Amino acid sequence: MLLGFACAVGVLLGAALDFSSYTSNSLLSNNKKKEKLARLIDYIEYEYVDDVNIDSIVDVTVNGILTDLDPHSVYIPQQEYASLSESMKGDFVGIGVSFYNVNDTIAVIQPLEGGPSEKVGIQGGDRILYANGKPLFNKNISNDSITEHLKGEENTKVVLKIYRKGVPELLEFNVRRGRVPLRSVDAAYMLAPHLGYIKINRFAESTYQEFRESLLELKQKGATQIALDLRNNPGGYLAEATQIVDEFLPDDKLILLTRNKKGAIEKTFATKKGNFEKGKLFVLINENSASASEIVAGALQDNDKGIIVGRRSYGKGLVQREMALGDGSAVRLTIARYYTPTGRSIQKPYDHGNEEYFNDYLNRYKNGELISADSISVADSLKYVTPGGKVVYGGGGIIPDVFVPKDTNFEKESLNLMLRSGYMDRFIFEVLENDRGYYNSLDFEEFLQTEMVSEEILQQFREFTRRENFQVKITEYRPVLKRYLKATMAQQLFGSNAFEQIVNEGDRMIEKVIELSSEE
């Protein structure tokens, strides 16, 4: 009876499951196709006349496969995966300092805000000479080796012996390693008595929490309007972006929808009472605002919440999922497309190959759309209308409601590139080292009121750039250069909030937002 019952169940299951599209021949054929690549690699490894690095062959093969899919499906090698994951995690375990290796000695640039070193009183300019009795001053010691001595398990202790200029004896600090935040909110401060400003550099695991804390602090300071700066933000985690949008939209408003290869649609709605549903909102974007940044801008624009200010965004409307490959590497594979609440896709075309896709910035520069909104190409077939009657377009990026042209002056752009790339950091560190006691004694308000960059420092910077084979026209852009050097100084003394506050002085988009915010 049992045997007969089992046979009957088998027959019924066989009838219920449709294998008609998967004949034995097609299954074997599919397996053979999959086996072909593995067999070829085995032939090369065991039969090829010369020794070959099989790992590199596999990496090249995987990259080649993904390149043929779309521009954003990418392979992450094992050696890059750990650091990439850490940058998106929102924190790491260590003592929490940024440093240079100066004359074979670890020189602290600054203790990281909220980290263990800041809590015990380590300062910028300190030299870390010993960690648990082991000398860290050595011509052959690498930054990786230094990091190994300073990082460790959470709550473990490390005894640091530090030289501080002007102090005759070495200082000893007992530092308990802990979680050091890698902040994704660069700045949060008041632009005007009623207007708060928040800048987000990426969407990591901690971004929503950082954003929410910043938003509540600004509300306490009297902010009834918010400028949300997403310029040069490449994106990140989708969930963090949707939670931020949720703070601005009423319950049950559609934030976005995604559609996979099978046509399955998943919708995301606002689910709670947000902390800024009534206030006036401005979202700043540019040609480097991508992915999750565009989700935020698109969701708010399509729900008639706020004003989008800037230039057309990057145009990435593909959703990726990270998948481990079993050897410490991973693949970030496109699994769906996302659409804004009105149903528009903002993914720019990629059917002419990756090279043309990634050269889109040059095309925008050539066709003039970085300096004129009239040069932005739109298709009537991709026109959508928001509930409030605003016309918006799909087909490649979010087009702002208020256009602000890019400053295309080459010399000024070069200075901005130097600022954002960290080129000025080492020079400013040397300036601070000349009188570390004075600079460390300043509070931020004193710093703001003082002209920190003298003509002498400007000339020193000119000499520095000459040594580095980089020429700067100081005469024409003296005020901008002074501001950028002062901002870099503020970064090392007071952190990113101070840096952004100084850099934003005279910023075209910021000035436009302040102008719009004062209009009734």
Q: Mind explaining what this structure looks like?
A:
A hairpin with a 2-residue loop joins strand 5 (127-131) and strand 6. With 520 residues, this protein is α+β, with helices and mostly antiparallel strands. The strands form five sheets. Strands 3, 4, 5, 6, 7 and 8 form a six-stranded antiparallel sheet that branches. The longest helix has 24 residues, at 24-47. It folds into three domains: 94-180, Pdz3 Domain (Roll), CATH 2.30.42.10; 185-406, 2-enoyl-CoA Hydratase, Chain A, domain 1 (Alpha-Beta Complex), CATH 3.90.226; 410-516, no CATH class. The protein contains 19 helices and 21 strands. Mean pLDDT is 88; it is low at 5-24. It has helices at 2-16, 24-47, 54-67, 78-89, 116-120, 143-150, 207-220, 238-246, 292-302, 354-358, 360-367, 410-421, 425-434, 436-441, 444-449, 455-467, 478-494, 496-503, 508-517, and strands spanning 74-76, 91-94, 97-102, 105-111, 127-131, 134-135, 157-163, 171-176, 178-181, 185-192, 195-200, 225-229, 254-259, 265-269, 280-285, 307-310, 318-324, 330-339, 383-385, 391-393, 402-403. The chain starts with a helix and ends with a helix. Pfam families: PDZ_2 (PF13180), Peptidase_S41 (PF03572). InterPro entries: ClpP/crotonase-like_dom_sf, PDZ, PDZ_sf, Peptidase_S41A, Tail-specific_protease. Belongs to the peptidase S41A family. Residues 81-151 form the PDZ domain. Keywords: Hydrolase, Protease, Serine protease.
